[in-house]
Design a protein that fits this description.
Number of domains: 1
CATH superfamily: P-loop containing nucleotide triphosphate hydrolases
Structural class: alpha/beta
CATH class: Alpha Beta
Order of helices and strands: EHEHHEEEHEHHEH
Mean pLDDT: 91
Strand order of the largest sheet: 2-3-1-6-7
Number of strands: 7
Strand content: 15-25%
Low-confidence stretches: none
Distance between the termini: 18 Å
Helix content: 40-55%
CATH topology: Rossmann fold
CATH architecture: 3-Layer(aba) Sandwich
Largest sheet: 5 strands, parallel
Number of helices: 7
Length: about 190
Amino acid sequence: MAKIIVTGTPGSGKSTVLSKLKDVRVISLSEEMLKYTSSKGVTDRDKLRYMSYEDIASVRKEVIQNAINKIEDDALVDTHLTVKKKTRYVPGFSKDDLDSFNDLRGIIYIDAHANDIMFRRLTDKTRTREEEPEEEIHEQRRINTAIAAYYAAHMNIPLYIIKNRQNLVEQTIKNVEDAIKEILGKK
């Protein structure tokens, strides 16, 4: 069945939005990757980005083939477009990864202002993140939207950029639900 990638710069509020959606299956790529890496001692999703690029790519390929593609109903794939470590950005998917998805129909990028992202990162006690200046958050957002546009163009699927403004999460949820319905042809 249909898959939709839902992504956003860390701190954009993507996880909050996804947790409030009803009647749709959400599969977290990082949680699925942890199932494969726990035997190698990587049991924290924030530590996945410190694995070698080759190891990350191998595990991601396994997850797409043996978890995501085996889902028999429509699903949202919760992931990031880049893995950032200091000044290095590694794309979340290779061209081959994208091509291996069964029935990928759209990308939803949840965006937020850099100030909101910085605030959310600083107040999120569930995650361990390095503090980054606003300038670096702007850079990460630009890189992520460029990669999202490339992915959408490569796959010939729509890209939705949905703003998640501070204190307006209900509107963001509605906009994401509308995008999902449109992508799946239910609107």
